[in-house]
Amino acid sequence: MRYLASLIAASLLLAGITHAEEHEGRRLAMPAKVNAAWKTECGSCHMAYPPGLLPGRSWNALMNNLSHHFGSNASLDKGTEAEIRQFLLYASSDRDTRPAKAAPGERIVTRITDTARFADWHEEVRADVFRRQSVGSAANCMACHRGAEQGNFDEHQVRIPR
Amino acid sequence: MSRLFLLLLAASLAPLAQAASSPAELLQGYAAEARQAAPGFSGFSAERGKELYYRRNTKDGKAISCASCHSDDPRRSGMTPSFRKIGPMASAVNPERFRDPAKVEKWFRRNCDDVLSRACTPLEKGDFLTFLTTLR
């Protein structure tokens, strides 16, 4: 019965994603149906970073190590962890759902702010702007992109605080 | 189809039914655990809970305490180092506090590990809740 319920939940999730709005330009696609556990659990310590910001491989690596999450204990019970992992993988930038396995010596990037895409997007933003008191750090997307949690990073709506 | 719907509904409501609880019930649970751990247990103390709330530790070279995220005044909102606002911890101003045992346990597990590098004892949990539910 539990199994059936999760099977149904999974197919609903998939259906939501195929119907996801693909925004124009570099606005990120967000699944039409956002997973509630992801929204509360991954949005309690910082903004809930939209799944399209990282490839599946990165989300997998991050989900494998939640009790040592960037210096914080962000551990979850097994059920919630599996549910969130599935949501992140299916809505990731490359929809890669295979288990992450680092090659010998390889370090899988788990910070959005360490990705090449992030550097490209912010080529014109000076490093000291990210360190402003009003911004805090580059990871605080919402300081400049008000709609960040909805996946809206439209460059015409960016406002950098002083 | 409607059967399926009911099934889904039941499955989604089940966790909600478990969640509802009051801080007093939680405290009863911690008291039972504390008694089991130490037969001399003689009740929780808001004073000790307060001491725990402000106790400072060093982590990665920086000072950290419960107050560093939950604010120096538990009747006010706090903020995580990663920029998320946290509602006040004192029940007097935030009646939503300490109502879901799974949520409370999850955060004790994480935050005690982050601040004290160990789990909190049932006595500490009860003291902490006593401090925050009696503060006016």
From TrEMBL, chain A:
Give yes or no: UniProt keyword Signal: yes
**Keywords, in A-Z order:** Signal
Q: What InterPro entries does the record tag this protein with?
A: Dihaem_cytochrome-c, Multihaem_cyt_sf
Organism for this UniProt entry: Pseudogulbenkiania ferrooxidans 2002
For this entry, the protein name equals: Diheme cytochrome c
- Coiled-coil region(s): none
The signal peptide, as residue positions, is 1-20
From TrEMBL, chain B:
Give start and end of each Cytochrome c domain.
Answer: 44-136
Q: Where does the UniProt annotation place the signal sequence?
A: 1-19
Q: What are the record keywords, sorted? A: Heme, Iron, Metal-binding, Signal
Q: Where is this region: Disordered?
A: 67-87
Q: Record's InterPro entries?
A: Cyt_c-like_dom, Cyt_c-like_dom_sf, DUF1924_SHP
Give a single Pfam family match.
DUF1924
A single GO molecular function, which one? Answer: electron transfer activity
Q: What name is this protein filed under?
A: Cytochrome c domain-containing protein
What lineage is on file? Bacteria, Pseudomonadati, Pseudomonadota, Betaproteobacteria, Neisseriales
